Amino acid sequence: MLLVFYLFPFGQMKVIKHSEQVLKTALISKNTQLVKLYENLESREKRLLNEAFQPDSVLFRPITLHSESDWISSHPEPTQDFEQFYNDPYRSRPTSRKSAIYVQPIGSFGDTKVSTEDYMKWLKDYCEAFYYGLSVKILEPVPVSHTGCAFRVNEYTYNLQIHAGDLLKYLKKKKPEDAFCIVGITMIDLYPRESWNFVFGQASLTEGMGIFSFARYDSDFYSVSYKGRLKNVKKLPSADYSVFDGYYTPAINSMLLLRSCKTLTHEIGHIFGLHHCQWLQCVMQGSNHLEESDRRPLDLCPICLHKLKSAIGFRIVERYQALLGWMDEDRSGMDAELRNEAKMGLLKPVEAFKECQKWVLKCLDVLQK
């Protein structure tokens, strides 16, 4: 498949630009059955999805690579078009009996202003809007000690880390009967094996499980003043989990919430069978580092949206309305109790979502013409 790279001035960035025909085929396919499937979509849905191969689209833009350390540059992967996704015999599919997405919080979350319960509700509601039509259930948070996982102090960053593989084993035992998938989330850093420095997350796609850490989404994580660094570094007793008592967790601010929403929906997308996107700017793009992750948009490109719609069966306009409703904090009609909460900083911090909100409104404008 031909990719055209445009080199920006000073050789700093590259734009991956596919031809209109390549994008159209990736979205619809040339398979007669799949073409008919696409033709049966609502006309307004096709109008939005067709933006994928419009060269002047302001909604869906080509991917820009900023350095050789970006994911596509350093992790060559085959592309996945709609036909490949649709015909994949190994991808997980929600059923009437197994349709719930379960989220298991591990360790403490939140700070003095935001409770674990508030943060989990925000993530739950966002995930239900993103995977519109499926229910998301938050399990009771558990301390690290309940998982029986191995842990260590990172020899470079001096922060606590917990073993990702052990946590997957724990999640497998806890996976409910009606679960499409179960994902664990934590504010504690992860490592997959002793020889690795860290990992953002790890998943077993065939078993519908994943574990993901938001620890490195704290803006101060890589600074020398990071509060999660242990002052007295020593080898920890393997069964003494008291080291996690009162361990630092970052404040839940708007940027951390945005990053959490991106990561959670991206990783669950993999469990649905969506591969890393290389077609257009998309939340399913791979990322090697925080700066690249922050560049990813919050939502799906048309090709990945078409994949997800075929898996779940939602109406696109209703999904966008649900996303907009989650982002829209209309403070004009607050009652006295909510105004007091706003003063205390307890309302959902959606400031970082403002550009995303404007983008969703543009998509709805196309759908509602």
TrEMBL record:
It comes from the Eukaryota. Keywords: Hydrolase, Metal-binding, Metalloprotease, Protease, Zinc. CDD domains: Peptidase_M54 (cd11375). GO terms for molecular function: metal ion binding; metallopeptidase activity. Pfam families: Peptidase_M54 (PF07998). The keyword Cell membrane does not apply. One of its GO terms (biological process) is proteolysis. Its cofactor is Zn(2+). Belongs to the peptidase M54 family. Probable zinc metalloprotease. This is Archaemetzincin-2. It comes from Mauremys mutica (yellowpond turtle).
